[in-house]
Structure to design on (836 residues):
């Protein structure tokens, strides 16, 4: 099949582009055969056109005359007003139904509210997108063919050749969603999984994971990946790889954790937990922070692993991290700390970390209701553990005023109740007057 | 190892400039340049230190590296192992015979350890030979005698109890190959050399470059093997400050065996303590640690017969299945224990140093090669990361 070339005549006015009519006619664009269903079945054309536009999205360099001035999208059913301006039918009808009797772009008053279908423009738009679509489909087939080829290659080669094949396949899988289907159809998942083992080099492993993480894995595939030797490899790569590798490994583990047969022993690895903390703390890569915290949160939901998380020093590291986190990350981090406060070692670690109380107090009523809820829960756990020590620290950090804010706010009743209880707990060591003075909003809190 | 030099002390004399001085200065400068060049060259050599308790497989790994990446053993070197191998044979049969006598005295079912009457004289004779400092060459006659004794039921029973005696791991291999070992023109094979057991004293080193795809990179490694027994480690360990990586060998099959130097101490516990001690040394603060969990082949077989929780460190082990799955489960358990130990013994600031665990069977050359390729990759990546290139 000959390569479909872009005709040099596709230059339209209105964007510094000129249409060469002769060539356009010659290529059969105007009223020719290549366009599609023909004039009569306008509905058929419309559906096709809509589908093509959707599949090609996002399209660059669409000629500006094809774009509806109201929605800034390519027009599927262009209609022209008496002023000569063309709009997408749906949009202009909506405009008119709102009571406006003017032309949106020229601001002229309309002397005639009729809308005329602009068949010429429609055909041009259809032809233009058809061309693009055909090219896209061809490239897609090429790409799918190449992907199948690469999978065959992977079955045979080793060493550097293997790494190169994987690299190419990964790039294609990221750029083309059709490749993902090809890989799945040709047994690519099983093949890639079989490449992972105790003697897999980092180069091969990181590429394979990069492909797997973008595919949808079925139950069997996930169970296969949960083998200890493979998980060990993933954890090692998480600890040693580039930021992209780290994120891929983290995402893969998170995918596996969704499986119903998942056992918490698989993530009960100190190396994994230490590696995730390192990822979360890396300020240079905020998306890494989020990914790492997200997995930690998921892991934390398994009670048995919480002790291990505390033992790698996660508590103080997370507490230190709090002031620098974005709101989404903050919620994750606080959720983790809250979960950890449910076990004795977690509570002790929280109490021993000097920044716990000031950071938690600071976060009350500052970011979101759930953050406030977690921060409050953490403060509660710490103050309950060592009321004498912590209550006064908390009050000095301005806890009382914050709690009053919570109570007076629109937060949930449980939250208010909790705040009241904590307020009571903290006030026990103070005289009434002294405590009230602590309740005043200081400038730092304001 | 870091070379510390202060050139300043050479040139600190204040003297008027005259010809003799100029020549001396020229020489000093030349020496200085040479030292600078050599120091620079040294820096590109990655130094690896093999550590581990006695009989953990360090020297076997050492020999494998020599076989894989150097010219291997030439005939002269192979021949030099003949006496060692013969010595191993005599030592083994002596340990077994003496062990049988001991068990016959102390065990409740003593009768099965009593060597048959016909073989008793043989046993006494071989035990006497084994206690000498100089061993006679293995003749056909002596070989037959050893074989006869080895096949004695009592000796076989004793061998099954090998863990409480000091029967070396090479016992079965050498006993099975006795005919070959006693040939008049016997030249040890590479495999024989790998099994041969000599207690390493002092330090041995080899320099090599891993062959294969990384040939172009010209990475040079120097591997040091240090004796494993308990003597004065703390006195010399600091000499290895600045090594790129420590390869720590732990024989996971010895969870039911006692030390050679101290028969009351369990070998696995000794390894645990040693690993802990090494991790805490300040000279290894930034050193990468490669933990080789060695002798997996023996572990595989043993774990199905001897429960792991016989060792104090593994007492919380709970068997899950049986067969191959059980072996994997047991291995993962041991691995986790070592991981736990690493994190317990490492200060939070130091947790970022590279720490990787490898399953090895030092006698399997292919496996050692694969394992070393991974070690090489890790160290090179680490290098690039530290140079900011990755």
């Amino acid at each position: 099949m000959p390569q479909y070339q872009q005709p040099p005549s596709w230059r339209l006015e209105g964007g510094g582009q000129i249409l060469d009519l002769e060539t356009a006619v010659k290529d059969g664009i105007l009223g020719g055969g290549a366009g599609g269903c023909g004039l009569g079945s306008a509905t058929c054309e419309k559906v096709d056109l809509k589908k093509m536009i959707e599949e090609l999205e996002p399209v660059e360099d669409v000629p500006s005359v094809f774009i509806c001035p109201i929605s800034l999208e390519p027009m599927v059913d262009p209609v022209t007003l008496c002023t000569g301006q063309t709009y997408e039918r749906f949009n202009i009808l909506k405009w008119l139904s709102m009571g406006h009797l003017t032309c949106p772009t020229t601001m002229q008053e309309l002397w005639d509210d009729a809308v005329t279908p602009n068949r010429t423009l429609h055909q041009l738009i259809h032809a233009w997108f058809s061309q693009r679509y055909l090219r896209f489909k061809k490239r897609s087939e090429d790409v799918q063919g190449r992907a199948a080829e690469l999978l065959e290659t992977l079955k045979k080669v080793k060493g550097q050749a293997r790494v190169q094949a994987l690299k190419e396949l990964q790039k294609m899988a990221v750029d083309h969603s059709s490749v993902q289907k090809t890989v799945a159809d040709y047994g690519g998942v099983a093949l890639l999984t079989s490449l992972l083992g105790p003697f897999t080099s980092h180069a091969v492993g990181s590429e394979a994971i990069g492909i797997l993480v973008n595919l949808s894995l079925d139950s069997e595939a996930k169970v296969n990946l949960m083998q200890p030797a493979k998980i060990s490899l993933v954890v090692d790569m998480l600890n040693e790889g580039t930021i992209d590798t780290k994120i891929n490994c983290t995402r893969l583990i998170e995918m596996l954790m969704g499986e119903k047969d998942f056992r918490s022993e698989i993530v009960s690895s100190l190396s994994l937990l230490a590696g995730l903390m390192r990822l979360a703390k890396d300020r240079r890569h905020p998306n890494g922070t989020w990914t790492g915290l997200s997995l930690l949160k998921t892991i934390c939901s398994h009670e048995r692993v919480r002790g291990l998380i505390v033992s790698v020093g996660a508590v103080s590291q997370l507490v230190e991290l709090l002031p620098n986190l974005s709101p989404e990350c903050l919620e994750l981090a606080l959720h983790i700390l809250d979960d950890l406060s449910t076990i004795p070692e977690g509570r002790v670690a929280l109490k021993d970390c000097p920044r716990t109380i000031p950071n938690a107090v600071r976060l009350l009523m500052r970011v979101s209701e759930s953050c406030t809820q977690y921060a409050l829960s953490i403060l509660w756990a710490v103050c309950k553990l060592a009321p004498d020590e912590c209550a006064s620290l908390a009050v000095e950090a301005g806890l009382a005023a914050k709690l009053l804010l919570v109570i007076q706010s629109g937060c949930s009743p449980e939250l208010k109740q909790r705040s009241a209880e904590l307020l009571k707990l903290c006030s026990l060591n103070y005289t009434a007057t002294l405590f009230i003075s602590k309740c005043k909003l200081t400038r730092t809190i304001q | 190892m870091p070379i510390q030099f202060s050139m300043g002390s050479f040139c600190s004399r204040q003297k008027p400039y005259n010809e003799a001085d100029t020549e001396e200065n020229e020489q000093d400068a030349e020496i200085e340049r040479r030292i600078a060049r050599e120091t620079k060259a040294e820096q590109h050599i990655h130094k690896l230190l093999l550590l581990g308790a006695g009989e953990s497989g360090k020297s076997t790994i050492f020999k494998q590296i020599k076989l894989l990446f150097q010219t291997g053993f030439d005939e002269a070197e192979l021949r030099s192992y003949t006496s060692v191998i013969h010595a191993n044979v005599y030592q083994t049969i002596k340990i077994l015979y003496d062990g049988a006598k001991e068990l016959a005295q102390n065990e409740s079912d003593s009768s099965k350890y009593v060597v048959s009457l016909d073989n008793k004289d043989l046993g006494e004779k071989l035990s006497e030979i084994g206690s000498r400092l100089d061993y006679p060459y293995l003749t056909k006659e002596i070989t037959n005698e050893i074989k006869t004794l080895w096949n004695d039921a009592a000796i076989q029973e004793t061998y099954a109890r090998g863990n409480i005696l000091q029967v070396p791991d090479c016992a079965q291999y050498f006993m099975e190959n006795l005919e070959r070992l006693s040939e008049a023109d016997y030249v040890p094979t590479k495999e024989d050399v790998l099994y041969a057991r000599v207690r390493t004293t002092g330090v041995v080193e080899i320099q090599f470059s891993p062959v294969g795809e990384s040939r172009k990179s010209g990475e040079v490694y120097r591997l040091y093997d240090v004796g494993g027994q308990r003597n004065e480690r703390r006195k010399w360990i600091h000499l290895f400050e600045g090594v790129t990586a420590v390869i720590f060998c732990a024989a996971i099959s010895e969870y039911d065996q006692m030390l050679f130097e101290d028969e009351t101490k369990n070998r696995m516990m000794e390894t645990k303590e040693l690993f802990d001690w090494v991790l805490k040394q300040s000279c290894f603060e930034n050193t990468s640690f490669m933990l080789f969990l060695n002798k997996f082949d023996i572990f595989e077989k043993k774990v199905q017969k001897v429960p792991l929780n016989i060792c104090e460190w593994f007492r919380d082990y709970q068997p899950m299945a049986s067969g191959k799955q059980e072996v994997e489960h047991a291995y993962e358990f041991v691995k986790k224990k070592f991981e736990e130990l690493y994190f317990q013994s490492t200060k939070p600031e130091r947790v970022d140093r590279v720490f990787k665990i490898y399953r090895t069977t030092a006698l399997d050359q292919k496996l050692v090669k694969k394992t070393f390729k991974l070690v090489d990759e890790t160290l090179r990546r680490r290098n690039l990361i530290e140079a900011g290139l990755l």
